[in-house]
Amino acid sequence: MSELAVRQTSIPGLLEIDLVVHGDNRGWFKENYQRAKLEALGLPAFDPVQNNFSFNAEVGVTRGIHAEPWDKYISIGLGSAFAAIVDLREGETFGRLETFELTPAKAIFVPRGCGNSFQTLEANVLYTYLVNAHWSPDARYTFVNPFDPDLAVPWPIAREDAVLSDKDLAAPMLAGATPFT
Predict the structure, then answer these.
(1) CA–CA dist 1, 27 (Å, integer)
(2) Sign (positive/negative) of CA torsion 129, 135, 141, 147?
(3) Digit-coded pLDDT (tens) for 88-124
(4) Residue numbers annotated as active site
(5) How many Å apart are CA 70 and CA 32, to the nearest integer?
(6) Is residue 60 part of a domain?
(7) Does some domain include residue 83?
(8) What is the domain count for the chain?
(9) Cα gap 173→144, rounded to integer Å
């Protein structure tokens, strides 16, 4: 069992969170999000309005890189995933990359304008995230190709073995992306 902790990364506002997972012969339990405790450790005020789940049956499912106009609190309900977060906001950290291995014991807080992506490391991964604005088809998104050679994301599973959407494959490279404002 670890201790609840929140750490700043090299991307402003991107936080890495260690969660406490209690396990025994029945399985495990975790307190995934507890506002007062997390804010006391440095999580900014965050008022979730929507909870989303992404179930991924295969190893190597690769989603993203997508930046949206809301903050995200991301965690894993089952399995593990490699997460790559890219700062797509205008400014000196545009294009900066941070990576994480997400398990039920690790969460991340991704500020609006940072591109979120992940790749499943095992079958049957349940990826969940809270957001502080409702999804809208009219929202402004910034997309970047997850296999952009200039970003050089160190994906554990090679492109030829990854499962990707046509939309993600067609996303522009970082050099052609419009920064999030």
Answers:
(1) 14
(2) positive
(3) 999 999 999 999 999 999 999 999 999 999 999 999 9
(4) 66, 129
(5) 19
(6) yes
(7) yes
(8) 1
(9) 5
Query: Residue 146's domain spans which residues?
Result: 5-176
pLDDT, tens digit, 9 for 90 and up, residues 20-64: 999 999 999 999 999 999 999 999 999 999 999 999 999 999 999
Q: Please list, residue by residue across 144-162, b when 16 or more beta carbons sit within 10 angstroms of its beta carbon and e when fewer do.
A: bbbbbeebebebebeeeeb
72-78 vs 50-56, strand pairing mode: unpaired
In a domain, 54, yes or no: yes
Decide: 157 and 60 in contact? Cβ < 8 Å. yes
pTM over 0.85: yes
Neighbours of 84 (CB within 10 A): 21
- Return the structure tokens found at 43: 């999580």
Position 181 in a domain? no
CATH number of residue 44's parent domain? 2.60.120.10
Tell whether omega for the bond before 65 is within 30 degrees of 0, i.e. cis: yes
